[in-house]
Amino acid sequence: MKTVSRESSLGPYVRLNSSRDSPIFVPPDQPAARCARRRSTQASASPTTTLASGETVCSVALTAPATDTAKVNVKAPLSMIRTALPYLRRSGAGRIVNVVSIAGKAVYNNNAGYAMTKFAAVALSHAARRAGWEDGVRCTALCPGFVATDMTADVETFPHEQMMAPGDIAEVVLTVLGLSNSASIAELVINCRDDVTM
């Protein structure tokens, strides 16, 4: 298997999969990265899976990123909402905006773990909205498509120059935050291409 490494603002990463739409990168010291670097011709004590692209990866490479992804995409926002909700309730006009992903509305590729966590993040947004509604708390699940960031730098299926700018997302967030309690947006899909989720 060809291992692809890259440098980001968070340090070096190793690519685990061949997905162009949703590449998975992990720190090189993670078990999944060490497993991905093994050549497919070497004997391995770990079970392996051969992808349609011909790449061979260890099963840990298929499970570890989903666990990390769930921590970032679901558990961290849940923890933050639990901590902030009492204060947001007291304000009488608390606002939560979860920047989820269009992947929380439709499954676009074979990265089931990522899509599952994004669907869960949309559900979390609805649960937070319901939990704080009587006290003026409003929650929006913002579901953007491709945004021109480091995360989409390796996407080859859509031109980077046609992706949304991060500032576009910021403008939408500012608009949602400025709405009154009687104008709540539960979900908002924003995209840079024609799409069936619109």
3D structure, described in words:
By secondary structure, the chain is α/β, with parallel strands linked by helices. The protein folds into 2 domains: 5-62, no CATH class; 77-190, NAD(P)-binding Rossmann-like Domain (Rossmann fold, 3-Layer(aba) Sandwich). It is 37% helix and 17% strand. The protein has helices at 31-37, 59-91, 112-132, 166-177; strands at 5-8, 11-15, 25-26, 48-50, 56-58, 95-99, 138-144, 187-190. The strands form 3 sheets. The chain has a 3-stranded antiparallel beta sheet. Strands 6-7-8 form a 3-stranded parallel beta sheet, sandwiched between helices. A two-stranded antiparallel sheet has the order 4-5. A hairpin with a 2-residue loop joins strand 1 and strand 2. Helix 1 packs antiparallel against helix 2 and helix 2 packs parallel to helix 3 (112-132). It is globular, with a radius of gyration of 19 Å. The two termini are 38 Å apart. Residues 1-11 and 30-64 have low confidence and may be disordered.
